[in-house]
Design a protein that fits this description.
The protein has about 300 residues and is an alpha/beta fold. The protein has three domains: about 5-85, Winged helix-like DNA-binding domain superfamily/Winged helix DNA-binding domain (Arc Repressor Mutant, subunit A, Orthogonal Bundle), CATH 1.10.10; about 95-165 and about 275-305, Periplasmic binding protein-like II (D-Maltodextrin-Binding Protein, domain 2); about 165-265, D-Maltodextrin-Binding Protein, domain 2 (3-Layer(aba) Sandwich). It contains nine helices and 13 strands. The strands form four sheets. Strands 4-3-5-12-6-13 form a six-stranded mixed beta sheet, sandwiched between helices. A three-stranded antiparallel beta sheet has the order 10-7-11. Helix 1 (about 5-15) packs across helix 3 (about 30-45), helix 1 crosses helix 4 and helix 5 (about 105-115) packs across helix 9. The longest helix has 28 residues, at about 60-85.
């Protein structure tokens, strides 16, 4: 007989102050209930009940014990509820790393929806560049990462979420600024403004250069800006007439300048993919819940949701 069950037996007798009614509620024989209460009293070293032929009453020690048992069982049940909630991803902590592009619109919408659905989960959100995100994921600094690229690591699982298109950014007085879309080959000979290439992992520079090679854009010169340069600096160089650049379409939402034009690229549609990444040995229900929310609210007019899931 477990001590936990004996405590429930004690509670039943204490509430009814009648062994017969308590036994009926517990669906056990009355002699068995009496035996278990005596065994509990023997273990405790004091009597819990005063018994006679007419009535059963709690002793002073029994009344004090009743208060402690009720409080203890209530806390035990609360701990069990919290544990079940943690198992189901309803409470706990989740550390997320994300590429800055997602902070324009997607991640705020997802986080707001998730916090509404799971108010007892504490989220932390860190913005990093791609190679840093994968390193943080491997080191356990984040549990879930949202970015482009492919870490080529068998220990990291991933799930495609959305695709996006690239835009070429032109000065407002560019000869092609009035075009509805631009072929990259039409820009051959012009200066291409990019962030510097980073070895070891996918980089925005590598994606842009590969896109240019594939579509016949042979730059007259490549101007690399410091990696710490913000988006406004990159686009500002274009506005100065010092070259053109290529950016993911979501960045168009941030730039409200008449001095540059974002143009779709002909024959290029949904050329990039944003995915979620996690360590395969630590895929939790919290992560699954967050991804479910991401799928539900992630698609909008600037990115196309990828409906099929890959685990």
């Amino acid at each position: 007989m477990s001590e936990f069950r004996r405590l429930h037996y004690f509670l039943a007798v204490a509430e009814h102050l009648n062994f017969r009614r308590a036994a009926e509620e517990l669906e056990i024989a009355q002699p068995s209930l009496s035996q278990q209460i005596r065994a509990l009293e023997a273990d405790l070293g004091f009597e819990l009940f005063e018994r006679n032929r007419r009535q059963v009453n709690l002793t002073k020690a029994g009344a004090e014990y009743l208060v402690g048992v009720r409080n203890g069982l209530a806390e035990f049940e609360a701990v069990a509820r919290r544990s079940r909630a943690a198992r189901d991803g309803l409470r706990g902590t989740l550390s997320i790393g994300t590429a800055g592009m997602l902070m324009i619109e997607h991640m705020p919408r997802i986080v707001r929806a998730f916090r509404s659905d799971f108010p007892d989960v504490d989220l932390t959100l860190t913005i990093m560049r791609n190679p840093d995100l994968f390193d943080a994921l491997r080191r356990g600094r984040v549990e879930l990462a949202f970015t482009t690229g492919n870490p080529a690591d068998p220990q990291i699982g991933h799930e495609p979420l959305w695709s996006f298109s690239s835009r070429v950014v032109l000065p407002a007085d560019h000869a092609l600024a009035a075009s509805s879309a631009v072929r990259l080959s039409e820009l051959s000979g012009e200066t291409l403004i990019v962030h510097p290439h980073r070895g070891g992992g996918s980089s925005a520079n590598g994606v842009v250069m590969a896109l240019c090679r594939e579509h016949g854009f042979v730059a007259g010169a490549v101007r690399e800006v410091p990696e710490i340069a913000d988006l406004e600096s990159l686009v500002g160089l274009v506005a100065c007439g010092l070259g053109v650049t290529i950016l993911p379409s979501p960045f168009e939402l941030l730039i409200c300048s008449a001095m540059v034009h974002f143009k779709p690229i002909r024959d290029v549609q949904n050329d990039g993919q944003l995915s979620a990444y996690w360590r395969k040995d630590e895929r939790s229900q919290l992560i699954s819940n967050f991804l479910d929310v991401a799928h539900r609210v992630g698609a909008d007019s600037h990115m196309v949701a990828i409906r099929s899931k890959h685990s």
